[in-house]
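User: Can you predict the 3D structure for this chain?
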Amino acid sequence: EVKDRQYHLHTYKKCFVGSDAVQYLIDEGFAESVEDAEALGEELTHSGEIVHVTRDHSLKNGKYFYYFKQDAPFHGGKPHSDGKGNSSTWTSVFQGLGGKSLQKGKGHAHQPSMVSALVSGELNREAEEKLQKLEVAPLDKYNTELLESVHPLSWKDPDGSDKYNLVVIGGGTAGLVSAAGSAGVGAKVALIEANLLGGDCLNVGCVPSKAILKSAKIAHQIKKAKEYGILSGDAKVDFGAVMERLRRLRAGIAHHDSAERFTSLGVDVFLGHGKFTSRNTVEVNGKTLRFHRAVVATGGSPNVPPIPGLNKVPFYTNLTVFNLTKLPKIVGVIGTGPIGCELAQAFARFGAKVHMFLRGDSILRKEENDAREVVMKAMKADGIIFHKLVKYKKISMLSEADEKAGNPFPAITIEVEQDGKPLPVNVNAIIVAAGRKPNVTTVGLEKAGIEYDPKKGVKVNEQLQTSNPNVFSCGDCASQYQFTHMADFMARMVIRNALFFGSGKVSSLLVPWATFTDPEVAHVGEYEHDLKARGVNFDSYKRSFSEVDRAILDGETEGYVKILTKEKSDIILGATIVGSHAGDMISEISVAMQHNIGLGKIASVIHPYPTQAEAIRQAGDLYNKTRLTKTVSRLLRNLLAFRRT
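Assistant: Here is the predicted structure, written as structure tokens:
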């Protein structure tokens, strides 16, 4: 019997019960047993003829609810045709453009600014407008697969007329986790994304950057092969192949964040620009969505400093640098934080001459001095030129790029002042990595009564609740910790607090982070200067990798493990690791801090030998030695002497 049915507080419309369907199949002779009926139901589920209401499993002989295909809710999807004779997928649009095939991953080797010019007249208007906005290039097989996943060319929105338990604006990590987790517990959820699902992490952040960092590290290891007794020629970097690998791997990961995956989870997916129109409504693509709770997860974007002339020359940020298909000969990097340092080192190892401009005298200003010095030394060894204590004067174009003349990049002068003297530096490409700003000014926060700061983001309380008590915010738009893992855990907290009367506090989250230079820098907890500023007495235990057997054997002796504890105690207050595997190693200390495991207890845990993680255990040994006071030492010596008599 098909009818509306209720489970807990949720009503499922036009559905039937699994046990009734199994009995029907047996009674009508379609199956001889329950097992046969369930096997037939599995085939019907696989073909899409019947659908479990939460898409958790195929037909089961129990009180489970199912829809017939025609009665299942529509959460959004790709139309088979747009009804106007135009292509409705990116694949069909790009296939064969300019006589190129997409089959082998090859396509136009153009820069992002040339997308629309290259294909002008060949794309329908919708596709051309979307390409200009999405800034995805080149148009090869892998970027096509990416677009098919995270921003299908044609997308039919759901009806959106029912009231939602949760409306999420933003499809990056914070938004995706909020939507998937809420839908998983039975909430009716709408997810709105104007650009690429997956946000910065998948498309222009963590994923593509780590892909090229791996290639850069391999190139560096080949150059150093002779130190390990391996004779090889010079490492020849095929930059186009490096970037194609990036695009291939990113496209392979993209299905996790795809529009179709989230509709399969029961999330209503809207691809468009969402804006609040009142305290409890959001508008997207001309539709008004009503909500009980909402989440602002709009992320962040690159900050572009007001340097005279910068806006008159082409430059790259993390939004566009991964579109490159050719390696610039000379690169200027503005910004010395994690993004700037990672990209500078990668491009240097690929063979570019890299200049980094520092307003101060060091890089990675949030990290401690010892860590900065180790990383800076390694970057200098890679050939990076540091210009310290500079003031930007102006940036100007010397000559335009000319592909036909063999100059795919322009000539640009970055003029700075150093020690009171002008210093002009000529480059072919500029990478701007001067921090990030929250995306908060274009989503109608004012109409929802949500307070925000254009520089700091959405104002939230400890429970991540905004000034509108029905709206929460998480991720880069609402946090000083702009990391994917922080966005993930903030979103988990939002689900509990927004939907289930939770009282979790964001200040309770312990946040480790890592910068993936070579060597890496990882940190958790407080720094020495934090503790000194608060007047907290502490002890410091430091173990250099030059004293760790495995690091010596690996030829990775630069760096250290430093752990800070409460004075005369093994309670861990913070830790910094600088080394080739620092990002992986910091988790052991994070677990210890989260669960109040002291440094002395870490020392009692057997660590495999030889591993670089032994450095953490050895720091614990340093702590245990402090427990051997002069009095205890004297008593032990007397005891041993007595036993010799």
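The first strand starts at residue 3 and ends at 7. DSSP finds 20 helices and 27 strands in the chain.
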